[in-house]
Amino acid sequence: MHHLLALLLVALLAGAANRAEAESGKPTTIVFVCLHGSVKSQVAAAHFNRIARERGLPVVAVSRGITVDNEIPTVIREGLAGDGLAPDTEVPVRLTSEEAATATKVFAFDEVPADLKGAAEVSYWSDVPPATKDYAAARRAIVRHLEEAIGPLKPKD
Fold this sequence. Notes:
By secondary structure, the chain is of the alpha/beta class. The chain has one domain (2-150): Rossmann fold (3-Layer(aba) Sandwich), CATH 3.40.50. Helix content is 47%, strand content 13%. The protein contains six helices and four strands; from the N terminus they run αβαβααβαβα. The protein has helices at residues 2-24, 40-55, 74-82, 97-102, 114-117, 135-150, and strands spanning 28-34, 59-65, 105-108, 122-124. Strands 2-1-3-4 form a four-stranded parallel β-sheet. The relative contact order is 0.21.
C-alpha cells in the first residue's frame, strides 16, 4: 500500500510540475511542513532542492512551520553543512493557507491545522525519527521519501 501511495504521489507531482511550468514558465513549488519549521522541513527542502538541481527538474521546495521557532538548531545547520547544503531560510517561516493552496504539493511531518492547509491536500511522512536526536537517521528516512516522490519526474527540455 505504501508503494502504491508513493507511485500515485509521483504521478501527481509529475503532472502538476509539467502543467505549472508550462503555464507560468517558473518552477513549481513543493512545501515541506514540520511543527516548528526549523528541523525536518528544513532537511527535506534542502535535500529536495539538491536532488531537483542534480536532475534538472523545474521544481523548488520551501520549508515552513506551524508554530515556528526563532532559529534553526545548530545540529540541523551542522548536519546540512556536512551534506554540503544550507537551510532553506535563515529563520523559520510560518505556513499560510495561501501558500499551501498555491503549492504543487504539501508534505508534512506533523498534523497541519485546517486553517493553515486550506484546500491543499497534504501527504504525511510520520515515520521520520527526530532529526535533532539523530540527524543521519532522519536524513536517511527523508531522502528515501524524496526519492520515492521524485522518482519519475523528468527534467525540463
